[in-house]
């Protein structure tokens, strides 16, 4: 989805630029296929970068990109839906986005509190009563990042925008921002009030989720009747799942927690990878004697679960569970994951489930795009999933939807009961029986000092690549270590009954090091192999690795 440099400039009716607008490095706002920045002041060393004018310019640039992409009859304005999570800057940014879209001559449909997957779905839903389908969608979110951050994700009916699209939009936003005038900014406020409509789209989205579970259970009205399921929304946007999805299906949801949206996130980080968050939902399950616990991240594109004994289904275990469910429906299919999945998961998918594990790169968009590519060249894949909890299914338009992942889990519960199988969440636990899990699993972050003279004026990326190359050579000369025969990211090595992966971060001057082993002693041996190779790079901060090795 890359188009040429755009020529549309809104709000430029006067030649006098607005003098009080701060200079902004728009390109620093790019975070892969998302945009992220600081939206709220008050945190030392973190100046606000996502101001209202910056937001308005970005929204106008997306609208111009969309107009060029769609190339439709100018007499019928395009429609853009706008939604947000629970962040405290959400309303201010939603108004700025609305002004930016309206200034480009497009209609705006505000959804208010919404989930990221719902925003994509609004480009597919065909329901005129809810002004759907829209031509494009903007979700205002920064996932699980701290309260002062915010950002944007963009969608069309072809899916989320890619890195090149975001770069293109930001480049155009610079031109729009620099052409802002007082008169033009005032006009955009008037246009926004004229073109703005509001609908409760989450009603449509949740209704579709309910229908999916009922269908899987043989069109039973309340297939989850008697099941006690607690939800932890972490004060993000996922609180709807208890009342609007589980309760209509007959589930008991008492004991659900942190359902109220609160952008200060007072209870725990809304992140299924966070240990405190997983402990909170596990505790809720045990205290309420629930059958299942479900947890979401802030904007509901990631999720995890715990069974009745508080055993967690996240990271490798969530991938194993979803693989088991999908491979029952599509025997032999390829499961695409990110690069940090365990060797035990590969054995489980290929030997126990009869599927194929295609371990690819970090980044949910990378994983999804790879699954799409495999299908295009004749290799069937129905699931693309990251250890972070981003999971996308072919049947759901390759959208990473945390709520839909949990619907697949609920489908399994409901269909098992409809078949006369009792035991609550034991049905799910049994599906991952045989998954080999390491006793030791750590991720250590080795930071590159970009100001160190050893970089010799080069980029951190070049320096990181040099580190990886030397490590690769070091491994090849050590008979106790074996480089992974197929690997798409960094240097992955097996040895001492475990493995390590050193890779370069997608966006930051960091080399994350993942180590998994059957004992701490073996994990240390793997760590020492890395340490002996990377010690030749003085700009690399190995303190995290050194500390790990000292605990032996």
From TrEMBL:
Cofactor(s) of this protein: Mg(2+)
Gene3D superfamilies: Alpha-D-Glucose-1,6-Bisphosphate, subunit A, domain 3, Alpha-D-phosphohexomutase, C-terminal domain
Entry EC no(s): 5.4.2.2
EC primary class: isomerase
Domain Alpha-D-phosphohexomutase alpha/beta/alpha: 31-172, 210-308, 315-416
Coiled coil regions, renumbered to chain: none
InterPro entries: A-D-PHexomutase_a/b/a-I (IPR005844), A-D-PHexomutase_a/b/a-I/II/III (IPR016055), A-D-PHexomutase_a/b/a-II (IPR005845), A-D-PHexomutase_a/b/a-III (IPR005846), A-D-PHexomutase_C_sf (IPR036900), Alpha-D-phosphohexomutase_SF (IPR005841), Phosphoglucosamine_mutase (IPR050060)
Protein name as it appears in the record: phosphoglucomutase (alpha-D-glucose-1,6-bisphosphate-dependent)
Gene that encodes it: LOC105137102
